Amino acid sequence: MLKIEPLGPRHDREGFDCGSVELNDYLKATARQHVEKGLSRTFVLVDEAEPERILGFLTLAVCEVHAQSLPPKLAKKYPQHVPAAKLARLAVAKDRQREGLGKLMMVNALQQALRVSDSVGIIGFFVDAKNEDARRYYELYGFIPLPDNPLKLFLPLTTLKQALASID
Fold this sequence. Notes:
Blueprint lengths: L1 E5 L14 H17 L3 E7 L8 E11 L5 H4 L5 E12 L8 H19 L4 E5 L3 H8 L4 E3 L2 E8 H11 L1
Parallel strand pairs: 4-5
Antiparallel strand pairs: 1-2, 2-3, 3-4, 5-7, 6-7
Helix pairs in contact: 3-5
C-alpha cells in the first residue's frame, strides 16, 4: 500500500533518481536540513512493503507574495503583501513515472495546503514550473500563470477547494 509520510532518516535518499540532477541533489543534500531549520517540509511517497525506498517526494513551504504579481482582477482584492503556501518541489522516481504517482502526491499537497488555510490565513497555493510541460500539468489542477512569468503559477484558495472537490 502506498503512503505519504514526512521525510525521515530511514528513507533512502541516495537511491532516489527522478531524472533531474537538481531535484535529486535537493532531496539528497538539502531537504532534511531545510526541515530541521523550519524552512520547508518534505514528504515522501513510499510503499509499505519497502518503506525505505522513496518513490516520489514533495516539498511544501509558506511564502509571501506581492499582490501586484497576481493577475489584475485578483491583485486588486488584496493588500500589497499576502501570505500563501507553495509547492516548492515535486518529483517521481524515473522507474515509476507515468503511473499516477504525481497525481497522488499533488492531491496530497492540495489537501495539506487546504488544511493550512484552516489554521493560517493564505490566499492560495503557488508553484514554479520547471518547464512548459510542467506548466501544462499544473494547469490541469486549476493553476493560472502569473502575468510577469508564465512558469510561476497560482491556485486561488477558492479554486483549490473546487479542484479537491472535483477529484474526490
